[in-house]
Design brief:
277 residues; six-stranded mixed beta sheet; binds 3-hydroxy-5-(hydroxymethyl)-2-methylisonicotinaldehyde; 9 helices; alpha/beta
Amino acid sequence: MELKKTLTIAGSDTSGGAGIQADLKTFQEHGTYGMTAITVVVTMDPDNNWAHNVYSLPIDVVKAQVKTALSTGIDAIKTGMLSTEEIIRTAGEAIDESGLDHVVIDPVMVCKGEDEVLNPGNTDAMIRYLVPKAEIVTPNLFEAGQLASMKTPKTIDEMKQAAQKIHALGSRNVVIKGGKQLDHPAAVDLFYDGETFTLLEAEKADTHYNHGAGCTFAAAITANLANGMQIKDAVVEAKQFVTSAITHGWKLNDYVGPVMHGAKSQFDTPQVKITEV
Ligand code: PXL
């Protein structure tokens, strides 16, 4: 059987919940064949409160991985943590070379629990080299504010404004991951295709174990697009997938609780309410 091939250009989360690891597990759960180009390796220090260290790979190592993967004929590309402007430019070149429409840009700017932005200049580089090539950009609230040059959205109306601005930067679709952070009874994401705003609502999971949720959501969209789904259906399934993964999040140690990437296939498909707003 021929499998669809999904490539992630992203960082390695040694703790296994986010980054390349989340992407590969999610690709597998969606029946696609995952491939990787690793940009950075993130480690966590157990002797210093799990503080993160980010080691960027040399640019020629990133380029060699991209060349390997693209030579096999990829069906969809996702980007995640890209630590330098040069790596962002290289990811943009990879997308051009692939000629693909199925491009998911997850504009990772910080790791959860870490408040230091990777490199503020990277936002401009993402706007320049990645956002215009995207079938969809998948920012969280903070990243949406940064890309849209506005304060971090706090309401659905502000999310709509940010989505419009990011769409105007050239992305064909936008989904802003509001999650539990909004003052709203449900866990919400907002999807915008340039014409219609769609609110996706799921029950808020009673857990703090959600490390890797953002990467998992974007990776699910990527695999769904590779498998031929329409963009909105791809986003709705990804929301179900990540809601189940968060609901079954678990404690790895005293510092981190990853989502359970295999939860939807093992346990349940959560309800997602879809409303035009
Ligand atoms: O969740 C954002 C993220 C993305 N990519 C890598 C990470 C993290 C957060 O830990 O380590 C590699």
